[in-house]
Amino acid sequence: MKTDRIKGEEYENYLHQRTKQLDLPSADSAVSGDKAEQKLAFLKQYLKELGSVAVAFSGGIDSVFLLKTAHDVLGSQAAAVTVSSCVFPKRELEEAKEFCIRHGIRHVICDADALEIEGFAQNPQNRCYLCKRAMMGSVLQAAEEQKAAYVAEGSNTDDDGDFRPGYRAVAELGIKSPLRQAGLAKAEIRHLAKRMGLAEWDKPSYACLASRIPYGEQITAAKLAMAEHAEQLLKEMGFCQLRVRVHGSMARIEVLPEDFEKLAAQPVRGEVVEKFKEYGFSYVTMDLQGYRTGSMNEVLKER
Prior knowledge:
The chain is an alpha/beta fold. The chain is built from twelve helices and seven strands.
């Protein structure tokens, strides 16, 4: 739902719901004050000192905000590099392309087959490290070809609280994390992006499709496609923040608790079951804990 199409009381109700769904700051929060602006000023100065940068651009809100800020500061010395792979939905690639065209940003697309990365398809606990190191290697090569002095990626301070072995690869490769350097949290990024007029300010958080498959279970192109098709269907039905986890032939759907009733009611429930079976699932379930980031990592914390 686009905010520019919503007026008056309907717009206020929309903002209230989005704030609740995305854990955004309220209007009187400290996030909307000087602190976020100070961090933005630091970020701009940090990027200016880099001189030229290639942003690893997924099209998510963090990389959108980072890329737009880098472009505002550095102009043509800022470029976007997007990796196209089976672990990323085609929808995300198209949205990344559209964003760069809209804002006049140089955009390079690299093709990479994650399933060819040694050890990745076996889905070990360091899966993200193996993938990130290979993918960022492609970004580094593209950055060199574009004569960018540095590569930057969009992790923020909120990402520090979960199991994310991919960050080790970022550090090993010398890739910059400007948002973390500036001390920016997700809510602050959304707040600043909204003030900048970026339509993506309320875009739901996302993660690669491999995170839908439990550790130790083989990652295949078919399973990745099942997750992609299933999540696309739910998005088209109007669900906002969601995940579809693939447990063999069983789908475990995570949606926000306030969306439980909608998912469980007919005709939505019947259509979801019918379509999911067409995608290759034998069983379709709803997770009663609801949507949460890193739910596949919960088993690691229990060990």
